[in-house]
Amino acid sequence: MAVHGRGRGGGRPTLEEVAARAGVGRGTVSRVINGSPSVSDATRAAVEAAVAELGYVPNTAARALAANRTDAIALVVPEPETRFFAEPYFSEMLRGVGTALADTEMQLLLIFAGNDRERQRLAQYLAAHRVDGVLLVSVHADDPLPDMIAELGIPAVISGPRSADEPLASVDSDNHGGGRSATAHLIGQGRRRIAHITGRLDVYGAQRRTDGYRTALAEAGIEEDQGLVEPGDFSEEGGRRAMAALLERRPDLDAVFAASDVTAAGARQVLREAGRGIPDDVALVGYDDSAIARHMDPPLTSVRQPITEMGRVMTDLLLEQTAVREPRRRVPAGVRRPQTVLPTQLVRRQSS
Q1: Which end of the chain offers a freer environment for a tag, N or C, measured as fewer CB atoms within 10 Å?
Q2: Where is this region: Disordered (predicted)?
């Protein structure tokens, strides 16, 4: 009885052993394994039979090395690990990336670069050509990582541009439209003293949500009150701090638009501790339409951005870039990659 999966000497079967078993040359076996059409049906059948009989497994690492590829991409998150695992945004993004890679041979590396030491270590890793491309998530305006990656000539896609002039390929949701629809909804419910807890304003998407808030107020003829705008940072604790400051400054507010569901959860706690009913006294709207929004009491009205789809589209764009096997070269100044913007949708629930 034949023993599968062992070559001469009991080791892994080699390409040469497959060639000898099929009665062909080593190059012919290589062409069959790599799907070349320049092989006859009879030869292909003989090689495939030898591969099956010996249990030969192609050395994908060696093939990638020969093609000057690693068959790996990195998902780089310039945030602390604690934030990554605490906020639903990141898990949804990761799900989309995984979906796009499911039918490929690409491996995914998750790399945190939330401080200078981690960024330096990442720079060394990328300079050694350890990955074929990079996905960048949650990048702040002053983050040096995107420019560093561009200098190395590594294909990259960013989740949301750093500014309107972003040179890297980016995928984002319509943050301005989302902020506008959230605020317009509150105005439509008869609210007039609408507070806004922003996200981190060094993140372009947060700036655009705030711009959308202002646009909706202007369209309704409501003069913006700077006392009703309080900086946040997308976190639950940031939502608590901002809500406490807003209540102290403007206790007559009747609605809050928070830049994330997590922030809205923190704001809700402070409102309840202050004896404010939701939505009777204060209507509340979040952003992301995460599981938090659905499970909050009362369920939270939220702007749905297609985070999973964003992760999938980002990965597809990166795979398109890495499929073009050219020598690494810096992106010339002034050249802009595609900027993809996906639509958002307001999901109404009992909080407003």
Answers
A1: N
A2: 329-352
